[in-house]
Give the backbone structure.
Amino acid sequence: MEIKDIITLAVSAVLLPLVSVALKRFGSFLKGILENDKTEKAIFEAENAAKNVVGAIAQTFADDLKKEGKFDSEAQNEAKKRALELLVSILSNETTTALASSKGSLSDYFDALIEAAVNARKR
């Protein structure tokens, strides 16, 4: 074996594992970026859907009851229930999966979105 072959073998033994580790880390980095992008899109979609849902429930349910003076706490709970059901029904599976992985409890998160949308309508 010549010196050139020994050097080539030594360099290959050191560089190949380093390149492999570097490529794995770069792949993880790219995966993180893509997951963040999915999560951001999911949050944006959910926030917009919550605003639309609250607006729809207000027009079709709450406003009529308010005019009749019948929008009590029971009616508020019913409006919130309807809004949550509608929100869940219109979000895609991809969106709910992304939100579940980043937000934890979807019911708590959706409750917060609905409350924020209701408060924004009151302003």
